[in-house]
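Field: COMPLEX_INPUT
Field: COMPONENT_COUNT = four
Field: RESIDUE_TOTAL = 462
Field: MODE = joint
Values follow.
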Amino acid sequence: MRGNLFAVAVDLVVLTVRRHQQRDQLCVLLVRRGERPFESHWALPGGFVQADEDLGDTAARELAAQTGAATQGAVQGHLEQLAGYAAPDRDPRGRVLSMGYLPDLPDLPDPEAGAAFLPVEDVYGLAFDHDRILADGVERARAKLEYTTLAAAFCPAEFTVTDLRRVYEAVWRTEIDPRNFQRKVTSTPGFLIPTATRVTGGRGRPPQLFRRGPATALHPPMLREPIPVPV
Amino acid sequence: MRGNLFAVAVDLVVLTVRRHQQRDQLCVLLVRRGERPFESHWALPGGFVQADEDLGDTAARELAAQTGAATQGAVQGHLEQLAGYAAPDRDPRGRVLSMGYLPDLPDLPDPEAGAAFLPVEDVYGLAFDHDRILADGVERARAKLEYTTLAAAFCPAEFTVTDLRRVYEAVWRTEIDPRNFQRKVTSTPGFLIPTATRVTGGRGRPPQLFRRGPATALHPPMLREPIPVPV
DNA sequence: CCAAAAGTGTTGTTCGTACACCCATGT
DNA sequence: ACATGGGTGTACGAACAACACTTTTGG
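Field: COMPLEX_OUTPUT
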């Protein structure tokens, strides 16, 4: 069998929306490397594929290790492959191919020591080519908000339409008309399930609380820009 | 460095539209394997990543080897990564990770001996997990017709609106209203460039001939189904 | 003239945007 | 009362489906 031999790794782009510097921001889970190369640099969590593992197995195992094993069951089937990265010089130790993975999962617990959620806008200089993998993951997540119900996974178990809108606004860095957004998401069957309770204590009219519905696709999709008119 | 070692390969899903059994059909380039395992089975063209090659380099090299080196220059930058496949038992020789690639290229010459374009609908039982890779490639190509001008790459250098429509119909296995299709594609700026010549010899009114324009995106996209109403 | 294929005009519907307006609560 | 945020109604426009209709060739 011709060809060079590679170590194969999986790197995770774990995204969430957190309040940072007085606004909701898209954040990514990073870990501080404890060994060379890139010792003490931030990096995406990940690890090598072991014997008898498929890529998704490795991704699920690493995800459970980083975010608490409790979520492992719910994680299966919600891991999306991003792309493969295999530039000859991407790892000084030798040839390593890394597969990027993007998990779609509900709101996450706070990270352990040595790990943190940092706003993607402030992140530069990650280890290896992780800046690139992160950029691809963010772009994929942005695209998925358009045609899937992924945004609801960034919210807590119960949330308001405004919470959901803030997810879109944080991920896309745009402003969305609250009134049209309301109609759009509440009229999509299976996206949001109303609960009996309402929120109290806020300033205005108490909003309705919703849970995630069974729908995964958005038809028609949510539009990201005010239509790029082709003239 | 922990983890198992893999050979890394690239497999190409080279698609084209050809006339087969009296109708235009989406066909894929396959090669007959000359060695074990899966000797004499059909397989996707591909090969192993060599030293100092990145994945795209390997894909471009294999593509040039299979379709004639003449196209190599035009091929750069038109290779889209599909996904990585690394099931532990996908290759009996040992652990092999394969990256699928989908080239977007203009109409192709006839294949060499030992290779053929076969209708994707008739293809089963390819070597390794190539049935799966093919299915992923076909689905990606179908999706790309919606929002890119890829369909024009399946046509000869000069083509009619009807030629272009037949590409959509062959790839999507649907029927499209010729009149609305005409308006849609001719009104998208940069998609089609009219030429001075017209076709003669056909049965009805001679159609206008077009060349591929510079546009790569389709805004708004071409719709694939009569809108899957969510009720 | 007639059939066949190319191409245009028109109408109804769906869906998004913009924005006026009403609702329900805290202060 | 009034500010604040939640939520509804409505008018306008863009784009698509459906299909009648005109144009231009070959037989």
